[in-house]
Amino acid sequence: MHSKYFSDAVYEAADGPKEEIVVPGATHTDLYDQMDKIPFDRLVAFFNKYLGE
User: What is the residue-wise DSSP string for the chain?
Assistant: First the structure.
């Protein structure tokens, strides 16, 4: 939770498009290499939508 407030501040300051993804029970370091916790489907959908395929 330590880095969450940094992320919240950047998210609020950023212009769109943007989407916040919170992974329940995960810390930011879990998302470095715990492949089962990384929401790849949501990430791919976001980038495909806004960057094109």
Answer: -TTHHHHHHHHHHSPSS------TT--TTHHHH-TTTS-HHHHHHHHHHHH--
